[in-house]
Amino acid sequence: MGILLFRQPRYSSNIKSDAARLYLSHLSSYDTVCEELNKIYGISLSKRSVRRWLHLVGNTAEQTLQAEKEFSGHFIYDEEYLKIFLGDVGKKDSKLQRVEVYLLLFIDAITGKIILMLSDSLDKSVLIKHWEIFAKWTVKNNIPFITLTTDGKREYNTMIKELNCSLHMNVKHSYCIFHFKKNLYEVCNKHLFGVMQTKKALPEHVMHQIKELESLVDQPTRDDFLKTLKTITYQKQTFMAPLQDQIKRVSKYSENYALHKEYPFLRTTNMAERWFGRTKPEKVKKGFKTKNGLIKVLRALAVKITDTNWKQRLNLTRDINDATELLISGLLGKRPA
Q: Per the CB 3.0–4.6 Å rule, which of 42, 128, 144, 200 could disulfide with 73?
């Protein structure tokens, strides 16, 4: 892409590249970036210059993501809850407002390419507008939108139907098998111990019932899945109460759970879980203080994770450390060696 990342001729590209590197390492601490660059290069760099450079980095990263065409059309959707501050962060006696936002993640099930969005609510009326923006973006860029795999929230099935109707699409909805299996353990823990996650071992007879339901969704073909589901539904009363509810659910949405038989690569959809595991918000401090800071960090993270040539894509030709090492060390609050 013929995009110029930095336009100010006064400082070398090395200094500007290091500004971007240090910004990600310290997660949006402008003061620390200025202090270290001034110390290393013996200059008098202002925080304003750093802010201007990083604004260009964010814009370039966003253009890079929006120009990406390497999508299969099979998307996995997930979301993560965040808390950020609005106001003059860092200024004495400033009044800050703590607000909730959500990171929306669309990840390609085959290529692993990622699109990030932010929402201030997960209310259905708000969320579906973001889904429509994403769907229209796929149409605009001639990207097929074939399937959308989600966790087990019931409203998602209705939302996809509404999306198909309003935009004249034919997106198929797949309920995530990974989340289904995970939920089996959680509902049993909740029923027996009062919490969804615990280190206590489930009784042997409960584990046997869970394994039987896991084998249901692991059937080799669609016909085998539907046949086994029919048998288990007939024997539903032999299962403990929370698992009976899970059987009812699979029976009601059998076509949504059977879709991964048609598209085997939808079988294990823990890719989104792993992505969030690498960018867990509670590990991040300064980068998530403000909404603007959050957006800039996310743009840069998305480029780093999805693009092995991220330095060239952002016109960063010099960097001391590997991008992935910087990302992980920064999120864990550690300085790279």
A: 144
